[in-house]
Amino acid sequence: MCLDMSSTSTLAPPRPRRRPSDAPTREKLLDAAAEVFAHKGYYKATIREICRRAGANVAAVNYTFGDKLGLYTEVLRQLFRTPERARLNDVLDSAGSPEELLRHVIFARLQSLCERKRPDWGFNIVMHEFSEPTPAMTRVVDEGMRPIYERVLKAVGEIIGLPAEHETTRLCNNSIMGQVIFYTYSQPVLSRLQPDLKLTPERLERIAGHIAEFTLAALQQMARHEHEHMGSPKLTTPNGGAASGAIARNSRRPSHVSKEKGSGAHIHD
After folding, report:
1. Which of 133-147, 207-221, 228-242 has the lowest mean pLDDT?
2. Cβ atoms < 10 Å from Cβ of 41
3. Are the beta carbons of 191 and 230 closer than 8 angstroms?
4. Phi and psi dihedrals of 164, rounded to 5?
């Protein structure tokens, strides 16, 4: 039997079998996992239940995310990939002063409270992390939270005239975070203590303004105290440059603490 090779040479090479798109399965797994992890936490959640909710084969988790921890890590990453995160990055790049940066960061964090369009599984997942930490949180903190945290820490240090790594700077930054987190994670209790407190966009804007004013007043007072305590006649930053706008403005205000040797006034830490 003779084969006509000329007829076969013009045929296109056989196409590989197309694998069904993984995107729908991936999204279904993430949505189902977020719900299960929120209700049960990482350690009590099972891959079998997640796949059952997602309508996927158990092997899909290993194929798509590697293992249960990989799936959980991606769920945590999704919690931080929000419009709020994009706004924060824009603020960090465009703020003209450390004071302006703090104001906009506080507002952006609170504004995200009004953007939740589905059950707040993220809140429950974070609560589980507080009680039963997992290795995934370390990865997510380093990837998504640390860069913003360090930029805000630097801004706080510039306002009070201390290095970002100074203990006082870190304590101040933690206090700012605490005010924002209070409204983020205390709503179940706050709604009972203040039933009339509705976190509308307008109310959140007023709350953000209050936190910013409260914070800046405290930081400016600490800046005055820091330079009076140091007894420095020339206001400079720890790097030897000019002091920030807040410190320079504060230096022109009269101090309530006398620095004369014979006055008997003392400054207590």
Report:
1. 228-242
2. 18
3. no
4. -60, -30
Angle of the 83-94 helix axis to the 98-111 helix axis, nearest 10 = 170
Tens digit of each residue's pLDDT (9 = 90 or more) over 212-232 = 999 999 999 989 887 777 654
Burial of 203 (0-12, 13-18, 19+ CB in 10 A): middle
- Which residues, at least 6 apart from 37, have a Cβ–Cβ distance to it below 8 Å? 45, 72, 75, 121, 125, 128
Q: At 217, list the tokens.
A: 């007043």
CA dihedral 64, 69, 75, 77 (to 10 degrees): -100
Predicted confidence (pLDDT) per residue in 201-210, tens digit: 889 899 999 9
Length of the chain: 269
